[in-house]
Amino acid sequence: HETMSATSVADLQAKIKEAGDKVKALKVEKKPKDDPELVAAVAELNKCKADLTELTKPVETNPFAKCRSELEDITKRRFFYRPAFDIYGGTAGFYTYGPPGSALKANITALWRKHFIIEENLMEIEDPTIMPHDVLKTSGHVDRFNDFMVKDSKQEDKFFRADKLLEEEMENRLKVPTITADEKTQYNKDLLAADSFSREELGAKLKEYGIKAPETGNDLTEPYEFNLMFPTPIGPSGLLQGYLRPETAQGIFLNYKFCAEQNADKMPFGVAQIGKSYRNEIAPRGGLVRQREFTQAEIEFFCRPKNKDFEKFKSTGVDKLELNMLPSPIQLAGQEMIKKTLGDAVKEGTIANETLAYFIGRTALFLLKAGIKKEHMRFRQHLPTEMAHYACDCWDAEIEVSTGWMETVGIADRSAYDLTVHSEKTKVALEAQDKLETPISVEVVALAKKAGALMGKDFRQDAPVVKGYLESLSSSDAKALQAEVEAAGTKDVTIDGKSFTLKKEHTTFDIKTETRHTESYTPHVIEPSFGIDRVFVAVLEHSYYAREQDAEDKEKINRGVLALTPDVAPYKAIIMPLDQKVGSDAKYLKMVADMRAQLSDNAINYKVDDSGASVGKRYARNDELGIPLAVTIDYVSIGQSDAGNDAEVGMEGTVTIRERDTCSQIRVPATEAVDLIVKMTTRGMKWSEAQALFAEQKTAASQSAGAVEGSTQAEVEAYLSKHNLTEVLNQLVNETLAAKPDNPLKHLSALLAAKAN
Hints:
Structural class: alpha+beta
Number of strands: 28
Helix content: 40-55%
Strand order of the largest sheet: 3-10-11-21-16-15-14-12-13
Number of helices: 29
Radius of gyration: 34 Å
Largest sheet: 9 strands, mixed
Strand content: 15-25%
């Protein structure tokens, strides 16, 4: 496909027209259907059409899309998650996390809490998930928290999110190998700008590309706004309107004053919240990516508006971090992402300030630690048309998954918008103060006593509103208003949507000069906002791979593995007996009881697999859960090894530990196994370091294979891993030892023959 050009498409289209004209001409001549000339012409027409279809068929280049079905099979079969209320048929946009999924998600959240709350010394709050109408009206959510929706024109119970339909169409068109450079540029522009188009622009694009209803192919209606919040009445009367919160951030802004007090009013400082948020998604497709109930982890980092330099940006080396970036100008030009260090991005003005860049870097480091592949992660700057009017700069951490680039984290400089609007509405000062090195003199406006006395008489219940307005004026504005009213006699002003008539006796001011030793200001805020469920999806997709199949394996089973990092793996270790005979031995039971107690004391999540399946199958099914380490108790462990085997003398009380990704093993004393697991799963010890501490478990087969001339140890280990020889031979040797036949070699040969068949 890659070698084909648009010229080839044009040639085929010309041939199709030529062949079609010939077929039509022959039919006009009323040639019979079995006429050789007509049959040949129809065959040529069909061949040209088939060639054109093949030539223009989209080519899937996304590495994660190719194994999506395999991963979905594992996540469903092992109950990582599945649709909620499934036995009732389910409801779109709601999911239940099963045991391994809940543990994985909890570990991602715990890693986030450690990486940000602990390491950045942030405060954490927990706010209600139901918010009253006034809060969300003030924040703008009641009026502006909308998406554009379209409907199937003939089946009006089918709804779609308009920008997502456009994005999907652009992604499909970009996969067609014969598109021109200009088309690619335009499709990329529209893909990245879909979320920022106005209602009119979006409607025009849907028509331009001929986008129809996905399920029926019917025409779509014009886009219109749909508010995403879930309304809910509060209290038995139902008169107090509330909503399920659409984000966790507002709770932090409402409690800024109290958190600042706990921080001794020092700036800068940050507050975090992790919890559920709710959005009534129009068409929640794509599994966990677009849910109606989801988990957010948000930080509001409050800082000085005039100085957003950040000492840790350089002292921690974050400025040297090189990331994939899509700045706004590059998107508008339809160009590919670039690599740039965060330090250079700040110097060049690509990123607005050091504090914002620091949290972009910390976000990248968190995602890498969770298991995201760096080459499939990028940071995209919001276009001017999609950025909120109050925002200084906004970036999204996007991760490539099977469905394309997925917005996972938003990092925004929100300026002082939220604190300002909540302060204006509640008349509560949400400010910070800095001590001035040199005191300053300022003019302060206050109503004269006579004017203040008239407020209650003339404006009654609105007196505080009018007085607050007048005393909030600057000295120059107060003087100008006073002069204007004296000249005209009256002046009408609008305050909070209500009109008032001011007379000259209302606008008499006392303007005094005060010396101030502190400066008051409304802090700006840098906000990293994480979709934990989306991180969950990306971690699964980036960790999945399938072991290479053995050509001699008759079962041809896909052996999928989740190479989850120890930080997030749902279970850190599996404990298993070699077989059920070992599993029933008193020494085995004592070893397991001791290890379980030690693992629990160290807060290490684990599983015990004492089923009757072979060791190999048990390894494989626990690889599917992403368990990094497997502890196996065998006949050597319980002192029932072959008495004639000198290599096993003195090995009673030891166990093998297998590492998931290399399939290599070490033998360690059972009393040290848990300590080793703790070090490897919570303290950063590498498997190679563990191997250096303990002799790697060798089988007779591996020693023999290692002696083959011309084979390196790495080649031998790769061969053994590919064919699962170590595990199979260990199992058969232990079965022979357990049976203690008169002729062990004959017994072992029979087992090998049965295995081969």
